[in-house]
Design brief:
Layout lengths: L1 H6 L5 H18 L7 H21 L7 H23 L8 H11 L3 H4 L3 H11 L14 H28 L4
Helix pairs in contact: 2-3, 2-4, 3-4, 4-8, 5-8, 7-8
Length: 174
């Protein structure tokens, strides 16, 4: 890590140290979570680390520096970037109109269209795949179709997450 930062032109030892510390704490905290995606786990841990350090700065904790908060922001941003990058290959999936309608309804948590909440709708989509009764508005859905929809949704969620982190960085008061 130190070598990578130095290679990228960072020479300030405090910046390098704070970045190294932030990432180390984030990865250590991520080990305490049990989520299905390691990148999401790292983002959760990075978000909690940032919230904690920002609160300490706001409350004038003499042991918390602005530089550490900046390093925590960078750690969150890099976690969101890696999550989006990992999912980006799924973003080029082409869905049929009915599949896209279902995916959009899922993304918008449109319970009237889905017939249930997001969690149950995704479970039903995966279970009904291959049957001829269709899953909600999608008739004759194959297992591969269901996987494509789920992958497309994952890519959209990763992209939305990254955009939210960028928005937070641009305006932390928002």
């Amino acid at each position: 890590m130190r070598g990578a930062l130095a290679g990228a032109g960072f020479e300030d030892e405090r910046v390098i140290g704070n970045t190294h510390k932030s990432l180390g704490i984030t990865l250590g905290n991520a080990a305490n979570y049990s989520l299905s995606n390691d990148r999401v786990t790292q983002m959760v841990a990075a978000t909690q680390r940032l919230q904690s350090s920002a609160r300490r700065v706001v409350h004038n904790d003499p042991n918390q520096s602005f530089e550490e908060v900046a390093a925590d922001i960078a750690t969150l941003r890099s976690s969101a970037f890696r999550y989006r990058r990992d999912k980006s290959q799924d973003g080029d999936i082409h869905l049929s109109a009915a599949q896209r309608d279902w995916a959009d309804a899922y993304m918008n948590n449109d319970t009237a269209f889905l017939g249930s909440g997001q969690r149950d709708a995704m479970k039903d989509l995966m279970e009904r795949a291959g049957g001829d009764s269709g899953a909600y508005a999608i008739a004759h859905l194959t297992p591969d179709d269901a996987k494509s929809i789920r992958a497309w949704i994952g890519a959209q969620q990763a992209n939305n997450t990254y955009k939210s982190v960028e928005k937070l960085i641009a305006d932390p008061t928002n």
